[in-house]
Amino acid sequence: MDIAVLSDIHGNYVALKQCLEYAVSHNINTFFFLGDYAGELAYPERTMQLLYDLSKEHQCYFIKGNKEEYWLKYRADGERGWKDKNSASGALLYTYNSLTDRDLEFFEQLQPVQEIVIDKMPAIIICHGSPNNVSEKLLPNDMRTIDIMNSVNASIILCGHTHIQQKIAHKERCILNPGSVGIPFFSEGKTQFLILHGKDGIWSEEFISLRYDVDRVINDMHEVKLYEHAPYWSLITEYILQKGHISHGKILSRVMELCKEETGDCVWPDIPEKYWAQAVEENYIDKQIKLF
């Protein structure tokens, strides 16, 4: 049997549709989704509808990512703290305001980790970050990663969160990361996922990278005015979609450093836009990308 494993869609319904069409055309009927369904990109309702429609026709397993925790915590805290026209939180606020009660209820019932056994094949653990924490990154050459692999009974851990396709093997166990459907790093503008092949009691992996209409995604961002809601965050997003050689996290870390160096303190999301501008310039992000 074959299973499509998809993670970190981040609202990229264009890329998601491409991945799903590829999987279905290869007679795949089982799908694992590893969290972070919405965020950063335009029309999150289109992503959610694709997922709802797919789950009516195919066997789908969904788990919670850190983004889902963001939406739920923001609702629980009384929808306070995030700001529009703010590079740190504007995209979060845009996405949250686009989500429906149905979406939030769907996120509410998701578990952060599942152990799955299908057709008497070896057990698989699916999670977003790690089996212990949705925001933890399982990285190669890291003793924490090895410790986690040793702590589980399943031979395979499927995780996302890093947005990088990779396999980490240790003894008879491995971690497989399908990369990101929506905003993959180091993908040369391609969308990414994973097909898990099961035969004769053995799982084997096939990493998939596909070309898709990146320009449409960027046009959508302009159409809904994401560059006004989250100016530099959206600029970085566009650069990642086209180039893939930087990350929001790297830029954000530098932004916080610059803010602390000059002001002595920096509290997210109250970060002046000038520090975003400086960090973007330092990282040689294309000047021809226009914010507005």
UniProtKB/TrEMBL annotation:
Highest taxon listed in the record's lineage: Bacteria
InterPro entries, alphabetized: Ap4A_hydrolase, Calcineurin-like_PHP_lpxH, Metallo-depent_PP-like
Gene3D superfamilies with a match to the protein in the record: 3.60.21.10
GO MF term list: phosphatase activity
SUPFAM superfamilies xrefs: Metallo-dependent phosphatases
GO cellular component: cytoplasm
Domain Calcineurin-like phosphoesterase: 1-197
Homology family: Belongs to the metallophosphoesterase superfamily. YfcE family.
Protein name in the entry: Predicted phosphodiesterase
Organism: Anaerocolumna xylanovorans DSM 12503
Organism taxonomic ancestry: Bacteria, Bacillati, Bacillota, Clostridia, Lachnospirales
